[in-house]
Amino acid sequence: MPKANPQDKAKPEFLASLLAAMFQDIRVATPIRILQSATYIKNSLDQVPPPYRYGLKICPLLANLVSLVMFGRPIQSLKDCHVPRLIATLQKTPILEGYCKLVRTLGLISLYDTTGTGRPS
Amino acid sequence: MTLSQPASTLTPSVIVECEYLVIGSGAGGSVAARELARAGHDVLVLEEGPLANTAEFGETSLSNLTRKLYRNGGIQPFLGKPTIGFGEGSCVGGSTVVNGGLIWRTPERFLDHWKTRKQIHGYGTDDLTPHFEKIEQALGVQHHTFPDTTNLDSQALENGCNALGWKIVPVPRALNGCVQANQCGAGCPSGGKQSMLVSYLPDAVSHGARIFHGARVTQLHQSRGNITHVSAQIDDDGGTRQLKITPRFVILAAGAIQTPFLIRKSGIKSVAGNRLEFHINLRFAATFREPINAQQGTIFTTQVQEFIDDDLLIMATNYRPSYVAAALAHFDNTTLQRFMDNQDHGGLFVAQVRPDCTAQISTRFGKNPVVKYQLSKQDIIKIRDAMEKTAELLFASGATEIYLPIQNSASIATLDGVRDVVRKLSPKALQMISVHAMASCAMGIEENSAVDTNGKVLGVDNLFVCDASVLPSNIGESPQGTIMAIAHEIIDRHLQQ
Question: How much is the ipTM here?
Fold first, then answer.
């Protein structure tokens, strides 16, 4: 796995694949909505201030895993990565659990999103 | 007239002079700006967040509004076990743009506590009542009236309370033409909710105040007991630029986290932010026998106050599919989809707990605060109790299934089932959020207080705090009314001196 690089930004394509794995049973999760969700998550994570990002440097392996989720190393690096297994690994790690929940929560907000008029976004 | 200008329109190479610099445009800052401008003073307001308008609230998706209107896009954790997500507005109007517009008068028991235990005088019922009357008139505070076919989630709670003999009261809200869009948490699309964006701030501007958004104050510079100048940072398409302001007085109203952070970061008072008090919100979803169409209504119209002296309040909350999804994110997809398939029978509810524990704000991690907390044993008891009481009420209100804010729990159809799960719960599995923080620079008479009872930062002659930070303690209720009343009192005292 690549080393964590906090300067890298999450890529919507990577997050889309992550979300697709997380939301595959939800009927509203169309490919377009998943990509919209991924873009939303990417933009949201871009606003997370550095302390929380740097606070994730727990150990090299976990940092690498988090880097994959939070900062989206090039998607080519993920060819051999089994996304559901990655999620499962992250979710079993207490200190990272909150960030997995965050990704899922943000994705769900976006998947079920509407405008102020009640129309789907 | 435009309410606020981008801070980038200020010329950074020129030092900006003003008589009063108000940092922050939320409930406290807006009162300060309006009252000082009305008194004929030169007022400059700097807001870190963006400007949004009512039309935008109706046209933009909830997720994009959340990202725009909340600090860090809504991602601001209180680190602990479990991590709590803290929601704080960061836009012109501050958290008043994203809250429910509830204007409660300060509960008597806390006013008594401040007077008798903390020896803080001038903030009793007689002192604050004139301010509350002024605020209520300015914001059109009223008990919400609504058609019988709407707000059935709040009405269900009322039925449950009647069955159990519990106390439930109508809520006082700042309203002028609420259309029940059920979007209080992401900006009111009708302008019916009287946030600072559509009330105090326009009034301040009409009296000459200048508001600039998109400028983050980074440092208060002190010399010989006075703030000599203030540094701010502007991020725009042209990159990052610095701004220097030389005010005669500084009114700090950046909220219960940013205000103490800035005071400490500027080397003024190390005690600021050592004790941040907050509320915990536990969100419950429930499915009812009959359709309640919870989306047709507003945030809530009634509040269960049977246990207010035990630090527990229960109420409905905004019901939109994306809010439901966020509240149920800790359930698996099948459970979530099952709830969504039956949405018109569903409702979202909140148990608000006033914990005994406090949080600490750290300045050691660069330019942003880090907040840490730890639940006490008593808090766990309170949370368990809150869950059981809320479940009891929901079943009495006609709920057939309840979804608890506990990781890996399933929907539960009986009160005994809830009690069993609650008894076994691990605190780490709790799903909690918070939207109320206060008392992080609590005013006091002790030498080690950060702020005196006039709102003045001790040891600095021209620096005042005028937001949730100065509340002497956690008041157990939505704090906007109290923040505004205390801000009125602080500004009145200042103007009289």
Answer: 0.84
